[in-house]
Design a protein that fits this description.
The protein has about 120 residues and is α+β, with helices and mostly antiparallel strands. It is about 25% helix and about 30% strand.
Length: about 120
């Protein structure tokens, strides 16, 4: 998938869209891009979605997200929102082997989410 998504230094949502469109060609599935704010993602309840995440390019490099979690300002990443928790946070699956699966608070999602979500939908809808 990384090659289909043209991944070099992180994967932006446009590259992910490209890779998924190529992978789902001639299948019953299509790719849908949604422009949502983080509150709408948490209210959505539309099942699993791939979220475009990362720190804004102008984020302070010495902030907790960089120092504690290793996020690099300006580098895009994609994670899967598996479900919303009862507490209003999110269960996130991360393709990086170090992270795997974790719970993000509403504030963490609001900080890292870049406004684009991608999901698979039945073709023709």
């Amino acid at each position: 998938m990384a090659a289909l998504c043209l991944t070099r230094h992180g994967t932006n949502w446009q590259g992910l869209y490209r890779g998924l469109k190529l992978k789902t060609a001639n299948t019953p599935w299509d790719v849908q891009v949604c422009r949502l704010d983080s509150d709408a993602v948490l209210r959505g309840g539309a099942g699993p979605m791939i979220l475009s995440v990362g720190l804004e390019r102008c984020a302070r490099a010495d902030g907790d997200f960089t120092r504690e979690f290793g996020w690099v300002p300006g580098v895009s990443h994609s994670v899967v929102l598996e479900r919303v928790t009862r507490a209003g946070g999110a269960v996130i699956a991360d393709p990086s082997s170090e992270m795997c699966r974790e719970q993000w608070s509403r504030d963490m999602l609001a900080t890292l989410y870049r406004g684009y979500a991608i999901r698979l939908v039945p073709r023709g809808l």
